[in-house]
Amino acid sequence: MVAFHILTLFPEMVMQGLSASILGRAAKSGCISIETVNIRDYTLDKHGKVDDYTYGGGAGMLMQAQPVYDAYQSVAGRIGQERAHRVVYLTPQGKTFCQEMAQEMAQESDLIFLCGHYEGIDERVLEEIVTDEVSIGDYVLTGGELPAMVMIDAIARLVPGVLHNGESAQTESFGDGLLEYPQYSRPEVWHEKRVPEILLSGDHAKVDAWRLEQSLQRTKERRPDLYAKYQEAHAVEKK
Ligand code: ADE
């Protein structure tokens, strides 16, 4: 069970995105829980403002420390001191998200995601509360909500009970450091293309060998970086 807590100015966007399909089912069954906290609810400004100009000048507004800190405190208070929690701030300046990070975070009991907007968040509150700065890739989005949703999806599907039979998290791209092999379903011939003969043979050992070969070939062609890592790991194993 992992509890996801998302600090955001757009709670509806996050809840809508995460309540459909597999994650919605997982939340209903209690394998995960998802809550959003609206940072705006914690501002002390009487007009509901959460942003202001940056010291030193420059374009754009910055989210202020106070509402972010108080929103965080409300969640941390509910989690309680006996349960450790990581606070992930979504930013293009963070460490790039990957499957290994997803696996590591799927072991936690509570994860707090902090979604920024405008030009970012006052550095002082980040220094006080954030444990992990994470980017989902080298491009700039308008806010941290989509990156948080991407991370939550990737983490949640690794939590026991979230995927059912046939939705296995094991035999897939990155599971063993390789890309996945091509797959086929009925009919046997479609647009004059035949399903590879070996898959119809019923010989499981041969099918497995073919799939591994396809995975290796694909990874070598499409992701030489992953292929090199795989070779290195397997060379070490053989020694
Ligand atoms: N916020 C804006 N762009 C982002 C990115 N690429 N990753 C994480 N957070 C972001």
CATH superfamily assignment of the largest domain?
SPOUT methyltransferase, trefoil knot domain
Binned strand content: 15-25%
Number of strands: 9
Q: What is the general shape?
A: elongated
Bound molecules: adenine
Q: Count up the helices.
A: 8
**Can you give the helix content as a percent range?**
25-40%
| CATH structural architecture of the largest domain | 3-Layer(aba) Sandwich
Low-confidence stretches: none
How many domains make up the 3D coordinates?
Answer: 2
User: Can you tell me the CATH class of the largest domain?
Assistant: Alpha Beta
Calculate the terminal CA-CA distance, rounded to whole Å: 38 Å
Order of SSEs, N→C?
A: EHHEEEHEHEHEHEEHH
* CATH T-level topology of the largest domain: Alpha/beta knot
Give the secondary structure arrangement, pairings included:
Blueprint: E1 2-8, H1 11-18, H2 21-29, E2 32-38, E3 51-53, E4 61-63, H3 65-79, E5 86-96, H4 99-105, E6 110-114, H5 123-129, E7 132-135, H6 145-156, E8 189-190, E9 193-194, H7 204-222, H8 224-238
Parallel strand pairs: 1-2, 1-6, 5-6, 5-7
Antiparallel strand pairs: 3-4, 8-9
Give a description of the structure.
- The chain is α/β, with parallel strands linked by helices and 239 residues long.
- It has 2 domains: 2-156, Alpha/beta knot; 172-238, tRNA(m1g37)methyltransferase, domain 2 (Trp Operon Repressor, Chain A).
- 38% of the residues lie in helices and 18% in strands.
- It contains 8 helices and 9 strands.
- The protein has helices spanning 11-18, 21-29, 65-79, 99-105, 123-129, 145-156, 204-222, 224-238, and strands at 2-8, 32-38, 51-53, 61-63, 86-96, 110-114, 132-135, 189-190, 193-194.
- Strands 2-1-6-5-7 form a 5-stranded parallel sheet, with helices on both faces. The chain has a two-stranded antiparallel sheet with strand order 3-4.
- Helix 1 (11-18) runs parallel beside helix 6.
- The radius of gyration is 22 Å and the shape is elongated.
- Adenine binds at residues 90-92, 135-137, 139-141, 144, 147.
- Adenine is lined by residues 90-92, 135-137, 139-141, 144, 147.
